[in-house]
Design goal:
With 654 residues, this protein is of the alpha+beta class. It has three domains: 164 residues, Four Helix Bundle (Hemerythrin (Met), subunit A) (Up-down Bundle), CATH 1.20.120; 151 residues, Beta-Lactamase; 164 residues, Histidine kinase-like ATPase, C-terminal domain (Heat Shock Protein 90). The chain is built from 16 helices and eleven strands. It has a six-stranded antiparallel beta sheet with strand order 3-2-1-6-5-4. A five-stranded mixed beta sheet has the order 7-8-9-11-10. Strand 5 and strand 6 form a beta hairpin. The longest helix has 74 residues. The radius of gyration is 64 Å and the shape is elongated. Its EC number is 2.7.13.3.
Length: 654
């Protein structure tokens, strides 16, 4: 029971139960008093009827109305019986105090002689006197009841006032209990939480609380505060440690980003890049000096590509280090990670510049790109140094990024060299096909001219001079055309602008009317494909100028579903029946090679109504694999079709 009363639920239940019992008792007593008052009021009403009935019976007796008197007497007897027995249904009953009961006894006793007198004939004067006395007795009975009702009414008012006092007192008790048992403990918890939110974990709550639940909460709060205080004491150290770790990781990420960003600067100077990388990796590793060495093609020497803070004498003496002269470069082909070289423990005399400079430790990092060994990066320290696992991984990653950068520069230079070589080959082929043949023809005409002069044949001399003049003009036109071709670039996202420029130059050079027609909308071609397409169209226009004898040229561009370029003329065309392949005509072969580079197909066919149509068709974007295959050697059937087409073209335009 005592434990129950210590709990908040027990206290609230006790208060509520006590209040409920008192309230129920007060309400029950109030109902009883009200019932008594209603019964007394009924008795007063009945007594009033008795007074009226007395006067009525006396009057009826004087008049001699015997039947009326008899009925009245019976009614009066019933009224006396009702007052004596009571009637709960009305309600009607005499108050249960002695005064009222005695007065009712007097009324019942006075009624007996009055009743007998009413039932006798005559004696009117005596009856009137008895009636007045009986009414006085009834008035005394009524006065007793009224006094009782007045007393109980006052008691009822006092009870109502007591109920009000009870409600007020219960409210005060409940509010006080709520304040003491609930509000104040919660306030202490709130204040403690607010203090802890301000990072002050020193406040504690008194666990000696009269309410068991809040005592448990206080105990839990104090336990939590102790745990938080212990945790917070170590939190600053942990935060500092984590901050240092994050700073180190950020520094490493920044180093990786800086090395990766070196590739976007667009510089091709490997020595400058190596010097910049040496500065970066020395700062990251905390090294006193750093060197970047590049292996030669034979793999037996290391060339100093870049360095930072190396002594001048050492950097000049070790510009080229043969493998085996010192520990640097050893096991370069088989080394997989950072290698720590303790200089003073080697005991070598050759190339002792590291020891002379005062270095005690060298960390050698192999520089590779894929399976290719590019060289080595060396970090020099005046003291002893042994990198951890994470630091070794970072250094390997940095060196790997830089090795990839150097390899990409080498491959880019090789690609540029190959592109220049291919363009030179194409230029040489075009020069051989046009200018070289024209010069050979001029050489023959000069010999004929010399022969005509020696033999004094004016007609031969004039013919040779005319051929020489025509050949010089043709060579001059070929040179201008080649200069225009190789100076033309798209310069725009689409190829239409370059095609219009090419046709304008073609009209100005040849006098042949040219028209460009574009149909559809397609995704713009990449710049490398635009260049090849433009050269194919230029070569087709050159063939028209040289061989077709045309008056009008039309270039049609269709962009859907795949790119298609058609160059058609209204010239003499070529003979499909008697044409043969001419090995000296390389224009179509050059166009075919350019088409194969971009995975396109090239066809040459006669034009309806006379002339020739050269069509270049690129594959649709979704057929990228086929374009890549077409960029290779091609299928034998395609090559045979080309042979037949060149034979027909050469036979028709020779």
């Amino acid at each position: 029971m005592r434990t129950l009363l210590r709990s908040l639920a027990g206290k609230l239940a006790l208060i509520q139960t006590t209040f409920l019992m008192v309230a129920l008792a007060a309400i029950g007593f109030t109902l009883w008093v009200s019932w008594q008052l209603e019964g007394g009021a009924g008795a007063i009403n009945e007594a009033g009827r008795m007074r009226m009935m007395t006067y009525r019976l006396a009057l009826a007796h004087e008049r001699g109305e015997v039947s009326e008197v008899n009925r009245g007497v019976e009614t009066f007897d019933d009224m006396i019986a009702n007052l004596r027995q009571g009637d709960p249904s009305r309600p009607l009953f005499i108050p249960d105090n002695k005064a009222c009961i005695d007065r009712f006894g007097e009324v019942a006793a006075a009624w007996v002689p009055l009743r007998a007198q009413l039932l006798k004939p005559g004696s009117g004067g005596l009856l009137h006197l008895q009636a007045e006395q009986f009414v006085g007795t009834v008035d005394g009975f009524v006065s007793a009841i009224e006094r009782t009702i007045s007393t109980r009414t006052a008691l009822l008012g006092g009870m109502c006032f007591g109920l009000v006092v009870l409600v007020v007192g219960a409210s005060v008790v409940f509010v006080s209990g709520t304040l003491v048992w609930i509000v104040r403990p919660l306030q202490r918890l709130r204040d403690g939480l607010a203090t802890m939110a301000a990072r002050d974990f020193s406040p504690r709550i008194d666990e000696r609380n009269s309410v068991e639940e809040f005592a448990s909460l206080a105990q839990g709060f104090n336990t939590m505060a102790d745990a938080l205080q212990r945790s917070y004491q170590c939190l600053e150290a942990k935060v500092a440690e984590k901050t240092a770790s994050l700073a180190q990781q950020n520094e490493r990420l920044a180093a990786l980003y800086d090395v990766a960003l070196m590739a976007s600067h667009g510089s091709d100077d490997r020595a400058q890049l190596a010097n910049d990388f040496a500065v970066k990796i020395a700062r990251v590793a905390g090294a006193d000096a750093a060197a970047v060495r590049l292996a030669n093609e034979d793999g037996d020497r290391l060339l100093l590509l870049g360095q930072t803070r190396l002594p001048q004498r050492m950097s000049e003496a070790e510009r080229c280090v043969h493998l085996g002269d010192c520990a640097c470069g050893e096991h370069l082909q088989t080394q997989t990670g950072a290698r720590v070289i303790p200089i003073r423990q080697l005991g070598r005399a050759a190339l002792g510049f590291c020891e002379q400079a005062g270095y005690q430790t060298v960390i050698a990092l192999p520089m590779r790109s894929g399976q290719r060994t590019l060289g080595e990066v060396e970090l020099f320290f005046y003291g002893e140094k042994r990198p951890g696992e994470s630091e070794s991984q970072l250094l390997d990653a940095l060196v790997g990024h830089f090795g990839t950068l150097l390899e990409n520069l080498r491959l880019a230079a090789r690609d540029r060299e190959m592109a220049v070589s291919e363009e030179r080959n194409l230029l040489a082929q075009e020069l051989h096909d046009s200018i070289a043949q024209s010069l050979a023809f001029l050489k023959i005409q000069v010999q004929l001219l010399r022969s005509g002069l020696q033999k004094q044949r004016p007609a031969d001399v004039d013919a040779a001079l005319a051929e020489i003049d025509a050949g010089v003009r043709e060579s001059y036109a070929d040179v201008r055309e080649l200069l225009l071709h190789f100076r033309t670039r798209p310069g725009h996202e689409d190829i239409q602008h370059a095609l219009r420029t090419t046709l304008s130059k073609f009209e100005l050079q040849s006098g042949i009317q040219a028209q460009l027609m574009v149909h559809g909308n397609g995704v713009p071609l990449p710049p490398d494909e635009q260049i090849q397409v433009l050269h194919v169209v230029q070569e087709a226009l050159s063939n028209v100028r040289k061989h077709a004898g045309a008056q009008h040229v039309e270039v049609r561009v269709i962009q859907e579903p795949a790119w298609r370029f058609e160059v058609s003329d209204d010239g003499r065309g070529f003979d499909t029946e008697n044409g043969r392949f001419d090995e000296t005509h390389v224009g179509l072969r050059i166009m075919r090679e350019r088409a194969q580079r971009i995975g396109a197909s090239l066809s040459v066919r006669p034009r309806e109504g006379g002339g020739t149509v050269v069509a270049l068709e690129l594959q649709a974007p979704e057929a990228g694999e086929g374009r890549a295959e077409a960029a290779g050697l091609g299928e034998p059937s395609v090559h045979n079709d080309w042979m037949a087409t060149e034979a027909r073209l050469a036979g028709g335009r020779a």
